[in-house]
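To: structure desk
From: M.T.
Subject: fold request, one chain
Message: Could you run this one when you get a chance? Sequence is below, nothing fancy, just the single chain.
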Amino acid sequence: MVNNNVMSALLEFRRNRNWEQFHQPKELAAALTVEASELLEIFQWKSHDEVAHLLKSESRDRVSDEIADVAIILSYLCHDLGIDLNEAVMSKLKKNEAKYPVDKAYGNAKKYNEE
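Reply: Done. Structure tokens follow.
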């Protein structure tokens, strides 16, 4: 997800603050949900038009910051667990291709096991 230079900067930032001790997998997973919820909160209860307006305003910076927080925590989690995010995504994409064949999923928002 992030390149090596960004990952090195993230690890240095964390190391300089001695935060590794707080970044166990469970805590990082919990933090990931908190950050994702903060991103969702920006859009909550807004219409599509309101969201479009928000994304053209100074509030876009807040969206960017929350996305960055999600990416940072996810990057720490992947690093600490030794998971290559690109490989994990490609592996999951292959599984999803089998689970959601185009002829059944095209234009359909239902889950694969729903009629």
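Reply (cont.): The longest helix spans residues 60-81. Let me know if you need anything else for the meeting.
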